[in-house]
Amino acid sequence: MKKYIFLSMLTAGYLFLITPFTTYMRSKPFIEKLGYVPQAEVLKFVAADQKVFLADSLVLKSLFYFGSLAGRSGAELVLPPDYFSLYKTIETAVKLDPYNLDAYYFAQAVMVWDAKRVKEANALLEYGTKYRDWDYQLPFFLGFNYAYFLKDYQNAAKHYQKAADLSGEPLLAKLAGRYMYESGQTDLALAYLSTMEKSARNAAIKKEFQERIAAFSAVKRIETAMADYKRDFGTVSRSIDELLRKGYLKDLPVDPYGGQFFIDESGQVRSTSKFAFHVEKSAGNRGK
Amino acid sequence: MLSVARVTLKGVFRDRVFQGIFMAALLFLFIPSVASLSMRQVTELSISLSLSLISFILLLLAVFLGGASLWKDMERRYSFSVLALPIKRSDYLLGKFCGVALFLLLTVLLLWAVTSLVVFFASGIYPSPRPVAWHYLFLAVFYDSLKYILLVAVAFLFSTVSTSFFLPIFGTIAIFLVGSATQEAYDFIHTPLAKDIPAVVKGAATGLYYILPNFTAFDLKLNAIYGVQVSGQGLLLTFGYFLVYTAIVLFLATVVFSRRELK
Prior knowledge:
By secondary structure, chain A is mainly alpha-helical. Chain A has helices at residues 2-26, 30-34, 40-46, 51-68, 83-96, 101-111, 118-131, 137-149, 153-167, 171-178, 185-199, 203-233, 240-245; strands at 76-77, 261-263, 269-271, 278-279. In chain A, a hairpin with a 5-residue loop joins β2 (261-263) and β3.
């Protein structure tokens, strides 16, 4: 009898502790959850024959972390992503397993858009092309990054050509040339995002692409209205209100990131959200 | 020697080691689910996880069977009764080694079959643009088994010099960890980054590289996962390395065991 009372007391103690314990674990910042990730050079020494497994674990941890941010309320992120730790984790993963496509895909899907770490992502992707020399996806990502973010059309064309050669899809080679003008940037982004969204398997990543496609589709609607206006009046429209008033836009396009669209001095469509979710200031934002 | 190997193999089965392996192998059931979390490489992740699990199971077997087999016989005084028979000590030791090595090979065969099923199933969920390199998968598992058989030989060597259970177990784990890192260390000291490292340290690292077993050579995981070409010459050299290194370790073990005073 005494044994059962003792066991009941222990079980009650466990139940008493488990909820605050779980809350504490959930609230830990990413870098603490992941633990300190030593440099890949050091990990290679201690990982013995489990280097690839270690790389897989790091990528999955990054993915789970990013997926956990999907608990967004309205247009706000519940917690700001710790992009710096994410980037370092992914970098370590590819040094342990330079063939890991998930790592490169994650870097491309998340790091270039949200963290604006295009040059770092490109460095990772170029490192990857040395190993995955059969894969068209990495040069395809690189071509897009050079064309869209860095406006380096020479490098973009080089990578798109490589993607075309590897995939046997000659259309890819024409991408950089076709969209090299500012007016074609939205089309370039939409073409790229649609390709990525269709093949995205992870729910959080897919949602990320869908939101961005929605934002760029809205921009495209405004750009089309502006082009119609210019055709009719010979001048550039200076405000979205004007386009609405004169019937070039049926309704006000919605920015999924919660911002307001406007036309800047150079005639480009921008949003006050800068196409990123507003982040609540809270503890745990260590990423810079 | 063959009868000792047979008895050892029977003993391993009698100790219900297979049940332990079966428990660990249950993890294979979860591999397709975990692999499906991958964004772009479900098949590759399933191969990676399966090979990692095989390596882990083989490591446990090599350390515990290799480290405990001889020690347990001496502790239970089975060795005395066996060695009272007209059998050489070296034959007794080699027989025991062959029994453990054979058990490892049987386990590998079973785990390879399970892995093939898991990978076949996972590749059905999300086929990879590159077909699964089944022959590389087999080679990766086979060379993994050679690596752990070599580790069993190291564990036997420790068992012959030790009177305690701890040296063979911890010594084998230490050799495994160091032997898996010597190639990295050797490569590192030959890079410009290592120019400030004292010559003594470099010399010690080079010495250890040649003396300790090089387990990195047996690791064909990346080749199996991504279908990266394996060098035929490399495979032959590694196989030769395995035969010669294992023979040297076993020779030393038999010499020490023959001179050992059994009380």
